[in-house]
Amino acid sequence: MGSTATTTVPTNAELMEALAAVGAAYFQDFAGAAARHGLSSSQAKALGAVQEPVPMRALAGRLGCDASNVTGIVDRLESLGLANREAAAGDRRVKIVVITEQGREILGLIRGEMSRTHQAFEAMTDEQRVSLHSICAQVLPVLAGRSTGAVQVPAG
User: Fold this and answer.
1) Residues paired with 84 in a beta bridge
2) Three-class secondary structure of residue 60 per DSSP
3) Angstrom distance (rounded) from CA 76 to CA 43
4) In what helix (H) or strand (E) does residue 99 lie, and over which residues does it extend?
5) Residue 103's closest CA among 35, 48, 63?
6) Which sign does the torsion angle of CA 13, 19, 24, 25 carry?
7) d(C-alpha 131, C-alpha 148), whole Å
8) How far is CA 141 from the centre of its chain?
9) Could you write out the three-class secondary structure of 100-113?
10) Of 8, 19, 40, 61, which is the most exposed, with the fewest CB atoms less than 10 Å away?
């Protein structure tokens, strides 16, 4: 005969621990791939955050760091030919960070080399992938302090 398995609903603390563990494992995979290309995780994350041109101050917000830290990150990306700083058209005092084609290529390589992350996602069914994406899209705006409209989940 069939068995009846009972599912216990995880507590907020259990969900927080699970989310933190997944985030930490993802970050380790990302940082390792970035390091293989001579980048810190912050530098690689900055490449992902400037898929479209972004003002320096907004980039600091996306990276969750002080604007002074972004200067060093962008300096390194510029020295490697992965990003450029340009003056904003409306206000020449505002500097915009723009990813280069070489930067896009390196970011693609980093994301492609995240083997543990790819292995985890490839083990999921299509339904699980859709559910995970939906859950992330629901949780992210609240965690990020944004309104709960339609949200694009960042791609690593």
Assistant:
1) 98
2) helix
3) 8
4) strand 95-99
5) 48
6) positive
7) 17
8) 14
9) CHHHHHHHHHHHHC
10) 8
Edge to edge, the sheet with strand 95-99 lists 54-55, 95-99, 83-87
**Beta-strand (E) ranges in the chain?**
54-55, 83-87, 95-99
pLDDT in tens, 87-140: 988 888 899 999 999 999 999 999 999 999 999 999 999 999 999 999 999 999
How many alpha carbons lie under 13 Å from residue 102 in its C-beta half-sphere? 9
Helices (H), 64-100: 67-79
Q: Which residue has the tokens 């962008």?
A: 74
Token pair recorded at residue 18: 């699970």
- Distance, in Å, from the CA atom of 73 to the CA atom of 89, rounded to the nearest integer, reads 23
Max intra-chain CA distance, the chain: 74
Residue 30: half-sphere exposure toward Cβ, Cα within 13 Å: 18
Residues 6+ apart with CB under 8 A from 84: 78, 97, 98, 100
The pLDDT > 90 percentage for the chain reads 78
58 in Cβ contact with 49 (< 8 Å): no
